[in-house]
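Comment thread on ticket #2218

A.B. wrote:
> Attaching the input chain for the structure job we discussed in standup.
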Amino acid sequence: MPAILNKPEIRAHLDKEIAERSKRTGINADRVIRELARIALVNPTDLINMSDASINSEASRDDTAAILSVKVKKGYSETGDYTEREVRTHDKIKALELLGKHLGMFTDRLNVTGEIVQIIDDVPKRSDMK
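C.D. wrote:
> Ran it. Output below, let me know if you need it in another format.
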């Protein structure tokens, strides 16, 4: 953190501005976490009818928030008309990674605490002192 942010008056002003922006936009940490959780924890079978790759009519609004895109392609072939559907969801692994970081699960630092014991083994033994 830059040293300037350690000054109480600057930190207070910045916190106030962030709170005002959050109030104006309706975006706050809780809302971001909820959206990430929707993406990270969605079960694709709750979203997609696996027999025809359409969106499941019983999918909840929370479930459908995980949908990135839906493509429908209609075509013709010798065997008749066909419809291709592609339903893509947002990156589940990335959402899980971000949630894990938020929870402190993945750290780049190793915190080691404890007492350091130093063993001195170059002290001459009694048998070596003769």
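A.B. wrote:
> Thanks. Noting for the ticket: Residues 21 and 27 are 8 Å apart (CA to CA).
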